[in-house]
Amino acid sequence: xxxxxxxxxxxxxxxxxxxxxxxxxxxxxxxxxxxxxxxxxxxxxxxxxxxxxxxxxxxxxxxxxxxxxxxxxxxxxxxxxxxxxxxxxxxxxxxxxxxxxxxxxxxxxxxxxxxxxxxxxxxxxxxxxxxxxxxxxxxxxxxxxxxxxxxxxxxxxxxxxxxxxxxxxxxxxxxxxxxxxxxxxxxxxxxxxxxxxxxxxxxxxxxxxxxxxxxxxxxxxxxxxxxxxxxxxxxxxxxxxxxxxxxxxx
Length: 250
Prior knowledge:
Layout: E1 2-7, H1 10-29, H2 34-53, H3 56-72, H4 82-101, H5 107-111, H6 113-122, H7 134-140, H8 144-155, H9 159-174, E2 179-183, E3 187-191, E4 199-204, E5 211-216, E6 220-228, E7 234-236, E8 241-248
Antiparallel strand pairs: 1-4, 2-8, 3-6, 4-8, 5-6, 6-7
């Protein structure tokens, strides 16, 4: 089964984008080839760009505080597993404490003159070539262990932010129960009656070679399945497609 996700608001869309960048950063930082590490450096700078354009740290802290308040109120409900509740509240407090003790995200990277110059060169097509930046070429010639040590040091200040957004998205994803659905002639519609969701999750069998195009508002959810034609343009599936759907909100 292949999972597709659709954010129902811009806040969740931003968190999913940042999660995607962190996933790419971790993957390429673990590679041994110098070209893997070049991609990880470029991704690191993309994360800094996002942090500069928006108060991402503040948004994550605010969201975690909102979740902490909502979970604390559950103590009054009968049947609540207090040990699990306490564990979740403790995790939120720990992550929020890390973020609260941190200043501007990635400030140490901005203060590093060599990284600042590399950031500017990587923004230029081909600017990271040995001709343009021999010092970066020299760094790439270092042993794998040394380059990995440097990367870990540069990534470490971003980890509190990663842990915060990962916790928010985990709680959001866990809030939705997956249901078996059928898209008749490739389309599914569900009336909501004013209920607002934050994230839609759709699982579909990979062998069907289709993908969902989703939309949602407080009135209706639409899921339309499409396949890629020979020219790669989306074409309506036009057949019944079984799938699983989870609507998430916290």
